[in-house]
Design a protein that fits this description.
- Residues about 1-15 and about 235-240 have low confidence and may be disordered.
- The protein has an 8-stranded mixed beta sheet with strand order 14-13-12-15-16-17-18-19, sandwiched between helices. Strands 1-2-3-4-6-8-11 form a 7-stranded mixed beta sheet, sandwiched between helices. Strands 5-7-9-10 form a 4-stranded mixed beta sheet.
- The longest helix has 25 residues, at about 625-650.
- The chain has 28 helices and 19 strands.
- By secondary structure, the protein is α/β, with parallel strands linked by helices.
- It folds into 3 domains: about 5-305, 2-enoyl-CoA Hydratase, Chain A, domain 1; about 335-510, Rossmann fold; about 515-615 and about 625-650 and about 680-710, N-(1-d-carboxylethyl)-l-norvaline Dehydrogenase, domain 2.
- Helix 5 (about 175-180) packs antiparallel against helix 6 and helix 24 (about 625-650) crosses helix 27.
- In the central section; belongs to the 3-hydroxyacyl-CoA dehydrogenase family.
- Pathway: Lipid metabolism; fatty acid beta-oxidation.
- It holds the Pfam family 3HCDH.
Length: about 700
Amino acid sequence: MSVSEAKVWEKLKSRNIELGPVTDIADGEYRHWKIARDAGDVAWLVLDRAGESANTLSEEVMEELGEILENLDKKRPKALVLRSAKPGGFAAGADIRDFKGVRDARQIEERMKDAHRILDRLAHASYPTLAIVHGHCLGGGLELALGCDHRIAIAGATFGLPEVLLGLHPGLGGTYRLPALIDPIEAMTMMLTGKTVHDRKARKLGLVEAVIEERHVDKAVSDFAAGGLKKQDRNTAGFASGWKERLLGLGPARGLAAKRMRGEVEKRARREHYPAPYALIELWEHANGDMERAQKAEIRSFAEQLSGETAQNLIRVFFLREKMKSKAKGESDIAHVHVIGAGTMGGDIATWCAARGLKVTLSDLQPKAIAAAVGRASKFYDKKLHSGIAQRDALDLLMPDFNGVGVSTADIVIEAVAEKVEIKKALYAELARKMKPGAILATNTSSIPLEDLRESAPSPERFVGVHFFNPVTQMELVEIVRHDRVSDETLVRAQAFCGDISRLPALVRSAPGFLVNRALFPYLAEAFLLIDEGVAKETIDRAAERFGMPMGPVELADRVGLDICLEVARMLRESDPENTLPAPPAWLERHVQSGETGRKAGRGLYSYDEKGKPKKQSSSGDDSEDLSALADRMVLPMLNTLVACLREGVVEDEETLDGAMIFGTGFAPFRGGPLHYARKRGVADIKAALSKLEDKHGQRFAPDEGWQRLEN
């Protein structure tokens, strides 16, 4: 829910959701559910999990549901309506806390069997059932809705089965109920990607029968109770009737479709890293319309995935995200953002803030840069915002500011100009005459220590680093950079601002490169040295991808921008007292001087096609051991630097460090974070590997003394 939507919701709180009768003909008292019948004997079952801001299907919630359904069987209602009382949505899925650290597959199977028995009671109820869904309906929440005969969406609702993002597949009937309801290829796409579908797409797919406004809920329930909603016809295999469904009910066609699905999954996830999507494809491929058999297979496979290393590490990542989100709570008092610098970073920061409901003014010395940024924003809104109203509102909030007048009324001014100390200082001197009292000045510098800039800021106590990562619209992390004169109030507001725009703050101390870029540089620098040694760019990238990185360091350097890489390299080398870091290669400077700065320029270390994809040469004959050695040579210096950052207090704790690297760089999520990986592999093993590399390649691989703390 965006900031503006949340304010409207609060204002209209008394008439937000139609929840049926409040006291009439109550059917019992429960902790997490409210159940009552209206005058037409329609039972309204409302989920409102106690003590939580969002509904999740904990074991206690499911046990209460089972008890309620058992009582309803004894005194049948005319119909049952299932709703959520939470403003954010229907349900966010299972309660992951119930499964954290559970590694006994047999125990998981028994728990899942209990949950299935409860949901089966709903699915086989002798009275018609209807789920009315608003907001998010995800994972187990969608599986609960699939257990009903009918589903109606309130405008704005979204649906998804994102379990694959946790190293799992649906485990409460989704693997067989969704393909039986809608086009099975569409169903598998939803489950294999974890992507959500909005209300109109859900209606088109047949996932819901109608999309209505909240004010029409009473009428919809009346029509439903009168038999106005009809179930889809099913063929004998259990699929919605249609030529594609009938064709895919045949073994050969299903086998071919499954083979193609595996091919698509292999493009983005290796089986040994992410086994869940492959297990999901196998479940679907071998389904034969026998729901009981499909249920048993799903439970068994789900238990295997959940007890495995990948799922447990990704569950850890889930809780890392939750911890970082908790730091973003509170009131920022920021309604107006002014961004100075309409380049790739500044323009995209402005684009994102407006998409999240904040008023944004965007200025630049070059009017063409502002126009280009607004053009990119329009394309982004067309692609990512699902309604014309939302697209219009975002564009209305993003205002070109050719004269920079927005500075005087903004609550936060974000500077995203060239990465030069002198340019930034000159700008700050000008801002001192224009910014309103109490406004925050934030720099998006990627590497410059704030101590080099703060004296030029209008008010050092309200000067802070707010460092976004490229691409801004995709990377969740924002480094909140503190220095010794910034106030606690400013840090709290800056972190809350991240919450306003759905970003994850990581509080770090000002130091050259801060945390993420400081750790990335040794990784990228080693890749550059390998290029100098004659190793193919594609081989270098493949070694990192085989380790689990979303992209290799060469492609990443192009994505970050070779100009930014060069500036960070210079900054970090100048700040290295022992001069152990390698100097930037001469060819890197030549690329930057010629304007070949990477993906944003269409050419860098790779050339790029019109879709922004790198043009790579094929070289598939690399030996796995060779790739593993290459990966160690690049990844271990990164880990070594992260240990140094932890020892120096650049970051407060290992969890923030691991979260920052995952959400800021995409560090192999299935490994649970770089330091979590180091502990799993063994600190002694990593120190020994670093020492071997030091003997062969020099002092830059010397194990940091901080490893000793991790051993204790």
